[in-house]
Amino acid sequence: MSKPEHPLELDRHLPSLIQTLGNKISLHALREGARPHDLDLRELRVILILGAEGRSTINDVADRIAMDRGGTSRAISRLEMRGFISRSEDSRDRRRSLVGLTGQGVRVHDELASFALTREELLLRNFSESDRSHLNELLRRVVGNVDTMLTGGEAQK
């Protein structure tokens, strides 16, 4: 196998850096946020989404956390069995159901949200408000570019 003309420098390659960062943040969330509540990472994310955005369809939750619908549906079922989530029929479309947090789910959400906000402060502790705002804008633009790539709006070379 021949060596590429321009070797990939993983420490400078944006997708690799973002993936490593995401994996490390997820590992911390699992260890410090999810496990104390006997949750897995997907369940933690479902609770945070429903707590922040309110009742939603399973597909909308899956799309929001960018995870497959089947795995998200199973996570929601486990959360429902534990009493964190309730399911109801969508009055506009009986084929769909809406899921939302129960009182117990809200309590867990509030603890997880507090954990998430504290962690965010730790991650950004050396950043000025201007740096934080700029980083947020840059990351939103990268997310927008990825969304365009996923919908086929931009041909890949």
What does this structure look like?
This protein is mainly alpha-helical. The chain is about 60% helix and about 10% strand. It has a single domain (about 30-150), classed as Orthogonal Bundle (Arc Repressor Mutant, subunit A). The protein has helices at about 15-35, 40-55, 60-65, 70-80, 105-125, 130-150; strands at about 55, 85-90, 95-100. It has a three-stranded antiparallel beta sheet. Strand 2 and strand 3 (about 95-100) form a beta hairpin.
Helix and strand arrangement:
Blueprint: H1 14-34, H2 41-53, E1 56-57, H3 58-65, H4 69-81, E2 85-90, E3 93-101, H5 103-123, H6 129-150
Antiparallel strand pairs: 1-3, 2-3
Helix pairs in contact: 2-3, 2-5, 3-4
Short overview:
With 157 residues, this protein is mostly helical.
Give the strand line-up of the largest sheet: 1-3-2
Q: What is the N-to-C succession of helices and strands?
A: HHEHHEEHH
- Structural class by sheet pairing and helices: mainly alpha
Spell out the CATH superfamily: Winged helix-like DNA-binding domain superfamily/Winged helix DNA-binding domain
* Mean pLDDT, all residues: 91
Helical segment count: 6
CATH fold naming: Arc Repressor Mutant, subunit A
- Compute the gyration radius: what is it? 19 Å
Low-confidence spans: pLDDT under 50, at least 5 residues? Answer: none
Keywords:
mainly alpha; Arc Repressor Mutant, subunit A; three-stranded antiparallel β-sheet; 6 helices; 62% helix
